[in-house]
Amino acid sequence: MAGSCDLNWEDPKITTYPGDPYPLGAYYDGHGINFALYSECATKSYLCLFRPSHNEKHELVEYARIKMRERTHHIWHIYLPDFEPGQIYAYRVDGPYDPQNGHRFNVNKLLIDPYARAITGTLEWDDSLFGYDVHDESPDKDLSFSTVDSAPFMPKCVVIDSANFNWGGDTPLNTPFHETIIYELHVKGFTQLNLDIPEDIRGTYAGIAHPTTIEYFKKLGITAVELMPVQHFVTDRCLKDRGLTNYWGYHTLGFFAPDVRYSSSGTYGEQVLEFKRMVKKLHKSGIEVILDVVYNHTGEGNQLGPTLSFKGIDNQSYYRLAENDKRFYFDYTGTGNTLNCRLPNVLRLIMDSLRYWILDMHVDGFR
Length: 367
Prior knowledge:
Elements: E1 25-28, E2 32-38, E3 44-52, E4 60-67, E5 70-72, E6 75-81, E7 88-94, E8 97-98, E9 103-104, E10 118-120, E11 156-158, E12 182-185, H1 187-191, H2 205-208, H3 211-220, E13 224-227, E14 231-233, H4 237-241, E15 252-258, H5 270-284, E16 288-291, H6 310-314, H7 344-359, E17 365-366
Parallel strand pairs: 12-13, 13-16, 16-17
Antiparallel strand pairs: 1-2, 2-6, 3-4, 3-7, 5-6, 7-11, 8-9, 10-11, 14-15
Protein backbone atom coordinates (compact mmCIF):
# COMPACT_ATOMS: atom_id res chain seq x y z
CA MET A 1 0.00 0.00 0.00
CA ALA A 2 1.54 3.27 -1.10
CA GLY A 3 1.30 6.42 0.97
CA SER A 4 1.94 10.07 0.29
CA CYS A 5 5.44 11.40 -0.26
CA ASP A 6 7.12 13.19 2.66
CA LEU A 7 9.72 15.69 1.47
CA ASN A 8 10.63 16.98 4.90
CA TRP A 9 13.68 14.82 5.34
CA GLU A 10 17.23 14.68 4.06
CA ASP A 11 20.12 12.56 5.29
CA PRO A 12 22.54 15.06 6.90
CA LYS A 13 25.35 12.49 6.89
CA ILE A 14 25.70 12.59 3.11
CA THR A 15 28.32 15.06 1.91
CA THR A 16 27.40 16.77 -1.35
CA TYR A 17 29.18 19.11 -3.76
CA PRO A 18 27.64 21.28 -6.50
CA GLY A 19 28.76 18.98 -9.30
CA ASP A 20 28.61 19.73 -13.02
CA PRO A 21 25.79 20.02 -15.59
CA TYR A 22 27.58 17.64 -17.95
CA PRO A 23 27.59 14.83 -18.71
CA LEU A 24 23.86 14.29 -18.26
CA GLY A 25 22.81 11.27 -16.24
CA ALA A 26 24.83 9.61 -13.48
CA TYR A 27 28.57 9.57 -14.12
CA TYR A 28 31.18 7.82 -11.95
CA ASP A 29 34.60 9.48 -12.18
CA GLY A 30 36.53 7.12 -9.91
CA HIS A 31 36.03 9.27 -6.82
CA GLY A 32 32.27 9.79 -6.68
CA ILE A 33 29.16 10.23 -8.78
CA ASN A 34 27.91 13.30 -10.62
CA PHE A 35 24.16 13.49 -11.26
CA ALA A 36 22.71 15.85 -13.88
CA LEU A 37 19.07 16.17 -14.98
CA TYR A 38 17.50 18.47 -17.56
CA SER A 39 14.25 20.19 -16.52
CA GLU A 40 13.50 23.70 -17.73
CA CYS A 41 10.27 24.37 -15.85
CA ALA A 42 10.88 22.53 -12.55
CA THR A 43 11.02 24.51 -9.32
CA LYS A 44 12.72 21.77 -7.27
CA SER A 45 14.48 18.50 -8.02
CA TYR A 46 15.34 15.70 -5.61
CA LEU A 47 17.86 12.90 -5.96
CA CYS A 48 16.46 9.77 -4.29
CA LEU A 49 18.82 7.01 -3.13
CA PHE A 50 17.79 3.40 -2.56
CA ARG A 51 19.26 0.23 -1.07
CA PRO A 52 17.96 -3.31 -0.48
CA SER A 53 15.98 -3.80 2.71
CA HIS A 54 16.76 -6.50 5.25
CA ASN A 55 13.48 -8.34 4.79
CA GLU A 56 13.14 -11.64 2.95
CA LYS A 57 12.18 -9.98 -0.34
CA HIS A 58 15.13 -7.55 -0.21
CA GLU A 59 12.86 -4.80 -1.46
CA LEU A 60 14.48 -1.52 -2.38
CA VAL A 61 13.88 1.20 0.19
CA GLU A 62 14.48 4.91 -0.17
CA TYR A 63 17.03 5.93 2.47
CA ALA A 64 17.92 9.45 1.33
CA ARG A 65 16.22 12.24 -0.56
CA ILE A 66 18.59 15.06 -1.43
CA LYS A 67 17.54 18.42 -2.79
CA MET A 68 19.53 19.34 -5.90
CA ARG A 69 20.37 22.98 -5.23
CA GLU A 70 22.54 23.72 -8.25
CA ARG A 71 21.06 24.61 -11.63
CA THR A 72 22.93 25.58 -14.80
CA HIS A 73 21.04 26.32 -18.04
CA HIS A 74 18.00 24.24 -16.99
CA ILE A 75 20.21 21.36 -15.82
CA TRP A 76 20.00 20.38 -12.15
CA HIS A 77 23.19 18.81 -10.81
CA ILE A 78 24.86 17.47 -7.69
CA TYR A 79 27.98 15.44 -6.84
CA LEU A 80 28.24 12.73 -4.18
CA PRO A 81 31.87 12.03 -3.22
CA ASP A 82 32.89 8.48 -2.28
CA PHE A 83 29.76 6.94 -3.82
CA GLU A 84 30.41 4.01 -6.15
CA PRO A 85 28.91 2.13 -9.12
CA GLY A 86 25.94 0.01 -8.12
CA GLN A 87 24.24 2.90 -6.35
CA ILE A 88 20.48 2.74 -6.95
CA TYR A 89 18.70 6.03 -7.58
CA ALA A 90 15.83 7.90 -9.20
CA TYR A 91 14.38 11.42 -9.11
CA ARG A 92 11.41 13.37 -7.84
CA VAL A 93 10.70 16.69 -9.54
CA ASP A 94 8.45 19.48 -8.27
CA GLY A 95 6.81 22.29 -10.17
CA PRO A 96 3.38 23.47 -11.32
CA TYR A 97 0.64 20.92 -11.87
CA ASP A 98 -1.19 22.69 -14.67
CA PRO A 99 -1.98 20.17 -17.44
CA GLN A 100 -3.82 22.70 -19.61
CA ASN A 101 -0.56 24.62 -19.90
CA GLY A 102 1.54 21.50 -20.38
CA HIS A 103 2.82 21.04 -16.82
CA ARG A 104 2.35 17.69 -15.05
CA PHE A 105 4.86 17.91 -12.22
CA ASN A 106 4.02 15.67 -9.28
CA VAL A 107 6.65 15.23 -6.60
CA ASN A 108 4.85 12.14 -5.31
CA LYS A 109 5.93 10.22 -8.40
CA LEU A 110 9.32 8.56 -8.61
CA LEU A 111 10.95 9.20 -11.99
CA ILE A 112 13.43 7.27 -14.10
CA ASP A 113 16.51 9.18 -15.24
CA PRO A 114 16.25 9.61 -19.06
CA TYR A 115 20.01 8.98 -19.20
CA ALA A 116 20.06 5.93 -16.91
CA ARG A 117 22.61 3.40 -18.20
CA ALA A 118 21.02 0.56 -16.24
CA ILE A 119 17.55 0.02 -14.81
CA THR A 120 16.74 -2.60 -12.19
CA GLY A 121 13.31 -4.13 -11.77
CA THR A 122 10.26 -3.78 -13.97
CA LEU A 123 7.12 -1.72 -13.70
CA GLU A 124 4.47 -3.10 -11.33
CA TRP A 125 1.17 -1.63 -12.43
CA ASP A 126 -0.60 0.26 -9.67
CA ASP A 127 -2.91 3.27 -9.49
CA SER A 128 -0.13 5.23 -7.78
CA LEU A 129 1.85 5.38 -11.03
CA PHE A 130 -0.54 7.97 -12.42
CA GLY A 131 -0.09 11.66 -11.72
CA TYR A 132 -3.84 12.12 -11.37
CA ASP A 133 -6.54 10.37 -9.34
CA VAL A 134 -7.58 7.40 -11.48
CA HIS A 135 -10.69 6.94 -9.33
CA ASP A 136 -12.02 10.35 -10.33
CA GLU A 137 -15.05 9.55 -12.49
CA SER A 138 -15.20 12.87 -14.33
CA PRO A 139 -14.14 13.15 -18.01
CA ASP A 140 -11.47 15.59 -16.85
CA LYS A 141 -9.93 13.26 -14.30
CA ASP A 142 -6.41 13.85 -15.61
CA LEU A 143 -6.74 17.40 -14.24
CA SER A 144 -6.97 15.99 -10.71
CA PHE A 145 -3.84 15.47 -8.60
CA SER A 146 -2.60 12.25 -7.00
CA THR A 147 -0.82 12.47 -3.65
CA VAL A 148 0.13 8.77 -3.54
CA ASP A 149 3.80 7.79 -3.65
CA SER A 150 4.63 5.61 -6.67
CA ALA A 151 8.12 4.51 -5.55
CA PRO A 152 7.21 0.96 -4.38
CA PHE A 153 5.96 0.08 -7.87
CA MET A 154 8.64 1.75 -9.98
CA PRO A 155 11.84 0.30 -11.43
CA LYS A 156 14.96 2.18 -10.33
CA CYS A 157 18.16 3.40 -11.98
CA VAL A 158 21.61 1.95 -11.32
CA VAL A 159 24.92 3.79 -11.59
CA ILE A 160 27.47 1.88 -13.67
CA ASP A 161 31.17 2.30 -14.37
CA SER A 162 31.36 2.53 -18.16
CA ALA A 163 35.13 2.01 -18.06
CA ASN A 164 34.82 -1.30 -16.19
CA PHE A 165 35.05 -3.60 -19.20
CA ASN A 166 37.95 -4.96 -21.21
CA TRP A 167 37.07 -4.83 -24.88
CA GLY A 168 40.36 -6.52 -25.77
CA GLY A 169 40.99 -4.49 -28.89
CA ASP A 170 37.44 -4.83 -30.21
CA THR A 171 36.89 -2.49 -33.17
CA PRO A 172 34.09 -1.98 -35.72
CA LEU A 173 34.02 -4.69 -38.39
CA ASN A 174 32.86 -2.31 -41.13
CA THR A 175 31.53 -5.09 -43.34
CA PRO A 176 30.82 -3.62 -46.81
CA PHE A 177 27.10 -3.16 -47.46
CA HIS A 178 27.17 -5.32 -50.57
CA GLU A 179 28.56 -8.20 -48.50
CA THR A 180 26.21 -7.75 -45.54
CA ILE A 181 23.64 -10.44 -44.72
CA ILE A 182 21.39 -9.43 -41.80
CA TYR A 183 19.45 -11.79 -39.53
CA GLU A 184 16.68 -10.05 -37.57
CA LEU A 185 15.86 -11.68 -34.24
CA HIS A 186 14.23 -11.27 -30.85
CA VAL A 187 16.69 -11.76 -27.99
CA LYS A 188 14.31 -13.84 -25.90
CA GLY A 189 12.52 -15.70 -28.66
CA PHE A 190 15.63 -16.77 -30.54
CA THR A 191 17.06 -19.05 -27.85
CA GLN A 192 14.19 -19.50 -25.38
CA LEU A 193 13.29 -22.99 -26.64
CA ASN A 194 16.71 -24.08 -27.90
CA LEU A 195 17.66 -27.21 -25.95
CA ASP A 196 21.27 -26.88 -27.11
CA ILE A 197 21.60 -23.70 -25.05
CA PRO A 198 22.06 -24.02 -21.26
CA GLU A 199 18.69 -23.45 -19.63
CA ASP A 200 19.88 -20.63 -17.40
CA ILE A 201 20.88 -18.43 -20.35
CA ARG A 202 18.09 -19.17 -22.80
CA GLY A 203 16.32 -16.03 -23.92
CA THR A 204 19.15 -13.74 -22.83
CA TYR A 205 22.06 -11.75 -24.22
CA ALA A 206 24.32 -14.60 -23.12
CA GLY A 207 22.19 -17.00 -25.14
CA ILE A 208 22.85 -14.99 -28.28
CA ALA A 209 26.59 -15.14 -27.55
CA HIS A 210 26.62 -18.90 -26.92
CA PRO A 211 28.84 -20.94 -29.30
CA THR A 212 25.82 -22.92 -30.54
CA THR A 213 24.08 -19.72 -31.60
CA ILE A 214 27.17 -18.27 -33.25
CA GLU A 215 27.86 -21.53 -35.09
CA TYR A 216 24.32 -21.40 -36.50
CA PHE A 217 24.87 -17.84 -37.76
CA LYS A 218 28.17 -18.80 -39.37
CA LYS A 219 26.62 -21.77 -41.17
CA LEU A 220 24.01 -19.45 -42.65
CA GLY A 221 26.64 -16.95 -43.74
CA ILE A 222 25.20 -14.22 -41.51
CA THR A 223 27.39 -11.11 -41.18
CA ALA A 224 25.12 -9.06 -38.89
CA VAL A 225 22.33 -9.63 -36.39
CA GLU A 226 19.60 -7.03 -35.99
CA LEU A 227 18.19 -7.15 -32.48
CA MET A 228 14.57 -6.18 -32.01
CA PRO A 229 14.21 -3.51 -29.27
CA VAL A 230 16.50 -4.09 -26.31
CA GLN A 231 16.26 -0.62 -24.73
CA HIS A 232 14.36 -0.84 -21.44
CA PHE A 233 10.63 -0.83 -22.18
CA VAL A 234 7.27 -1.08 -20.43
CA THR A 235 4.17 -3.20 -20.92
CA ASP A 236 0.91 -1.25 -21.19
CA ARG A 237 -1.57 -1.71 -18.37
CA CYS A 238 -4.28 -2.80 -20.79
CA LEU A 239 -2.07 -5.73 -21.82
CA LYS A 240 -1.13 -6.59 -18.26
CA ASP A 241 -4.79 -6.61 -17.20
CA ARG A 242 -5.47 -9.21 -19.91
CA GLY A 243 -2.57 -11.40 -18.85
CA LEU A 244 -0.49 -10.32 -21.85
CA THR A 245 2.89 -8.66 -22.21
CA ASN A 246 4.67 -6.27 -24.55
CA TYR A 247 6.73 -8.95 -26.25
CA TRP A 248 8.25 -6.82 -28.99
CA GLY A 249 9.53 -3.96 -26.83
CA TYR A 250 8.41 -0.90 -28.80
CA HIS A 251 7.46 1.16 -25.73
CA THR A 252 10.75 2.57 -24.50
CA LEU A 253 11.36 3.98 -21.03
CA GLY A 254 15.18 3.95 -20.92
CA PHE A 255 16.96 4.87 -24.15
CA PHE A 256 20.43 4.08 -22.74
CA ALA A 257 19.65 0.94 -20.73
CA PRO A 258 19.71 -2.63 -22.09
CA ASP A 259 16.52 -4.27 -20.87
CA VAL A 260 17.08 -6.19 -17.68
CA ARG A 261 14.62 -8.93 -18.67
CA TYR A 262 17.17 -10.28 -21.15
CA SER A 263 19.91 -10.62 -18.54
CA SER A 264 20.99 -13.94 -17.07
CA SER A 265 23.73 -12.52 -14.88
CA GLY A 266 22.03 -9.93 -12.68
CA THR A 267 19.95 -6.79 -12.54
CA TYR A 268 22.17 -4.18 -10.86
CA GLY A 269 24.36 -3.29 -13.83
CA GLU A 270 25.35 -6.85 -14.70
CA GLN A 271 23.00 -6.64 -17.70
CA VAL A 272 25.26 -3.98 -19.22
CA LEU A 273 28.33 -6.20 -18.91
CA GLU A 274 26.42 -9.17 -20.33
CA PHE A 275 25.36 -7.10 -23.34
CA LYS A 276 28.95 -5.99 -23.91
CA ARG A 277 30.20 -9.58 -23.69
CA MET A 278 27.61 -10.55 -26.30
CA VAL A 279 28.79 -7.84 -28.69
CA LYS A 280 32.45 -8.73 -28.12
CA LYS A 281 31.88 -12.43 -28.87
CA LEU A 282 29.80 -11.72 -31.95
CA HIS A 283 32.44 -9.32 -33.27
CA LYS A 284 35.14 -11.91 -32.65
CA SER A 285 33.18 -14.23 -34.93
CA GLY A 286 32.84 -11.58 -37.63
CA ILE A 287 29.22 -10.71 -36.86
CA GLU A 288 28.06 -7.11 -36.51
CA VAL A 289 25.31 -5.99 -34.11
CA ILE A 290 22.51 -3.69 -35.29
CA LEU A 291 19.80 -2.37 -32.96
CA ASP A 292 16.15 -1.77 -33.81
CA VAL A 293 15.49 1.55 -32.06
CA VAL A 294 12.44 3.77 -31.58
CA TYR A 295 12.94 7.41 -30.63
CA ASN A 296 9.61 8.93 -31.67
CA HIS A 297 7.64 8.11 -28.50
CA THR A 298 7.90 6.68 -24.98
CA GLY A 299 5.91 4.26 -22.83
CA GLU A 300 4.13 7.03 -20.88
CA GLY A 301 1.09 7.21 -23.19
CA ASN A 302 -1.22 10.22 -23.47
CA GLN A 303 -2.85 12.45 -20.83
CA LEU A 304 -4.36 9.35 -19.23
CA GLY A 305 -1.05 7.50 -19.14
CA PRO A 306 1.30 7.03 -16.17
CA THR A 307 3.97 9.42 -14.95
CA LEU A 308 7.20 7.42 -15.11
CA SER A 309 9.93 9.73 -16.39
CA PHE A 310 9.74 12.51 -19.00
CA LYS A 311 6.15 13.46 -18.17
CA GLY A 312 7.05 14.21 -14.57
CA ILE A 313 10.52 15.65 -15.24
CA ASP A 314 9.24 18.33 -17.62
CA ASN A 315 6.30 17.32 -19.77
CA GLN A 316 6.35 20.24 -22.19
CA SER A 317 10.13 20.07 -22.62
CA TYR A 318 9.96 16.53 -24.00
CA TYR A 319 6.60 15.95 -25.72
CA ARG A 320 4.70 17.57 -28.60
CA LEU A 321 1.56 19.07 -27.09
CA ALA A 322 -1.55 20.47 -28.75
CA GLU A 323 -1.08 24.20 -29.27
CA ASN A 324 -4.64 25.17 -28.33
CA ASP A 325 -4.74 22.98 -25.20
CA LYS A 326 -1.44 21.60 -23.92
CA ARG A 327 -3.29 19.11 -21.79
CA PHE A 328 -3.37 16.88 -24.88
CA TYR A 329 -0.57 15.23 -26.83
CA PHE A 330 0.07 15.04 -30.55
CA ASP A 331 -0.15 11.34 -31.33
CA TYR A 332 1.67 10.91 -34.63
CA THR A 333 2.90 7.50 -33.51
CA GLY A 334 -0.34 5.76 -32.52
CA THR A 335 1.03 5.23 -29.02
CA GLY A 336 -0.45 8.23 -27.21
CA ASN A 337 2.50 10.62 -27.39
CA THR A 338 5.24 11.93 -29.64
CA LEU A 339 8.65 13.14 -28.52
CA ASN A 340 9.30 16.72 -29.62
CA CYS A 341 12.47 16.29 -31.66
CA ARG A 342 12.35 19.96 -32.62
CA LEU A 343 13.55 20.84 -29.12
CA PRO A 344 17.35 20.94 -28.62
CA ASN A 345 17.28 18.90 -25.39
CA VAL A 346 15.25 16.10 -27.01
CA LEU A 347 17.49 16.04 -30.08
CA ARG A 348 20.50 15.93 -27.77
CA LEU A 349 18.97 13.03 -25.83
CA ILE A 350 18.52 11.03 -29.03
CA MET A 351 21.99 11.81 -30.36
CA ASP A 352 23.60 11.10 -26.98
CA SER A 353 21.82 7.75 -26.87
CA LEU A 354 22.96 6.77 -30.36
CA ARG A 355 26.53 7.81 -29.57
CA TYR A 356 26.45 5.84 -26.31
CA TRP A 357 25.40 2.62 -28.00
CA ILE A 358 28.14 3.05 -30.60
CA LEU A 359 31.02 4.29 -28.44
CA ASP A 360 30.35 2.53 -25.12
CA MET A 361 28.39 -0.55 -26.14
CA HIS A 362 30.20 -1.06 -29.49
CA VAL A 363 27.11 -1.75 -31.60
CA ASP A 364 27.54 -1.25 -35.33
CA GLY A 365 24.36 0.42 -36.50
CA PHE A 366 20.66 1.08 -36.13
CA ARG A 367 17.38 0.44 -37.89
